[in-house]
Every structure is written in C-alpha cells, then in structure tokens.
Amino acid sequence: ELNIAHTRYLEGADINFNAVGLAQKVGKSGAFGLSLMSLDFGDINVTTDAQPAGTGATFRPSYFNIGMGYSHMFANKVSVGILARGVSEGLSNVSAFGFALDAGVQYVTGPKDNFKMGISLRNVGGPLRFNGEGLSLEVPNPNNNGTTIRILQRVSRFELPSVLNIGLSYDFFLGERNRLTALGNFTSNSFSRDNLGAGLELSIRDMFVVRGAYRYEIGTTSTTAENTPLYTGIAAGASLVLPINRDKPDHTVALDYGYRVTKLYKGSHNIGVRINL
C-alpha cells in the first residue's frame, strides 16, 4: 500500500504538510512500513533589532522526519507494531536532531471481527537541543580595547510532545457491501489538554465513504477567543475507492479528503491518494 498526502494547515497561513507512506506485507502475518513527512512554512521575512519591519531577505525553516516500522498479527486477533523515527528541524545556521519511538496494539473480536480496540503511544524519545553558528553572538570585548569577541549561547533542551491514544470502534453491516462504523477515542497530550472524540463512517458498496466526527478538549471552560481551542471540534471527510484490476478486487486506488474547522483562518484541508496492490 502506498499513501501520498498533502495538508493545507490553517488555510491562509501558507503552512503545508507533505507525507508519503509505504507498507509491504512480509510473510503471512507481518508488515514493514516506511514513512516520510516534511513541513513547508513558506518564506518568512528576516527581521533584526535595527530593522524590525524586515531586511528584505527571507528564510525557510525545515522540519522533516523519517520512520521505519514493523507490525505483526497474532492469530488474526491481536496486532502489535513499533516504529522508530528520526526527527530533524532547524534553519540554515541552527538545527536539532533526535529519535523517537511509536508503539501500538490492536485487538479485534466479534462475530464478524466488527469490534476493535487499539492503544498507541507516540513520540517517546530523548530530548532535542539546537546547535549551530546561529547561536553565536559578536559582543564587545570586556577588556574595553575596542575589539569584539564571539560567544556561543547555551540553549535548553526540549522534549517531543508524547501522545497516548485509546480508541474503540464497532462495525454495523448493512447488507453485504454497506457498513456503518461508530468510533470513540481518548487522547492524552503531554503538553496540552486531553481530548475526547467520537465519529461515524458510512461505507457504500466499498466504493464511497463519508465520515463525520467531533472532538472535545477536556478542561476548556473559558469562552474568550484567546483561550478556546484552535479547532472547533468539527471534522468531516470522504473517500472514493476504485478498482484497478477486475480480477483482483483488493487492488484499488482511493482518493481521500478531510476537513477540520478552525476558529481562525479557513480550516485545515487534507488530500490523499492510496494505492493498494
């Protein structure tokens, strides 16, 4: 399976996500995965103390990560997976690099394997620290002899935002090729409020899929605009799945679209293509 995805984050902010994922079955019960993701922040004006309105030059921050993972299914009921990821971010003269692990387990049961429960833990790793020439400063010599010296600033380490997800889903089969899935999810964030979410997915003849969901941020009591969550909680999406080979019904290409409503800008748009061979 090959996944290619593009996200226009906060439409109007000129921030884009680009991602590619590849999964390949290994043996009867295993699968190997590879993922790549980058962020495009667009051109940002260079400003200084002397020119706070901008110098006329621009720069582009870089954010990139690559992950390699493996999963295994036990007795068609329990699946376990782990992924190791390298994270790189920085500017032309300062950067940071680190490693993180993702791990998850899923349990499937029910008369038609229609009940699923999963737990995942993401971004578990060591702290990162920025280094580079961009952290050096040229300051007057303390000996007052009219010369300058260059010193290197010390910067604090920072942690990756670890996330714990616990999810449940149940499939209601409406005939042979139609399905309605109800799902719920709890997300625990290390640096922000926890979330509760619920959604529905309707699949028609395994070709057209529509989705709707709502997420609530636990502990949000303020009604002021600056303290309410960025996302309103409403999300929706759809998929169109088309067969590639009539003799092989599991060979398909799918077009995916998702939208999340935000209180600022014009929401976040997700567009993706999935190819199963």
* Straight-line N-to-C gap: 6 Å
Strand content: over 45%
Number of helices: 0
Order of helices and strands: EEEEEEEEEEEEEEEEEE
> Main sheet: which strands, in order across?
1-2-3-6-7-8-9-12-13-14-15-16-17-18
Class inferred from helices and paired strands: mainly beta
Question: Would you give an account of this structure?
Answer:
The protein has 277 residues and is mostly beta strands. The chain is 0% helix and 65% strand. The strands form 3 sheets. Strands 1-2-3-6-7-8-9-12-13-14-15-16-17-18 form a 14-stranded antiparallel barrel. The chain has a two-stranded antiparallel ribbon with strand order 4-5. A hairpin with a 3-residue loop joins strand 14 and strand 15 (208-217).
List the helices and strands and how they pair.
Elements: E1 2-9, E2 15-26, E3 30-40, E4 44-45, E5 58-59, E6 62-74, E7 78-90, E8 95-109, E9 115-125, E10 136-140, E11 148-152, E12 163-173, E13 178-189, E14 195-204, E15 208-217, E16 231-245, E17 248-262, E18 268-276
Antiparallel strand pairs: 1-2, 1-18, 2-3, 3-6, 4-5, 6-7, 7-8, 8-9, 9-12, 10-11, 12-13, 13-14, 14-15, 15-16, 16-17, 17-18
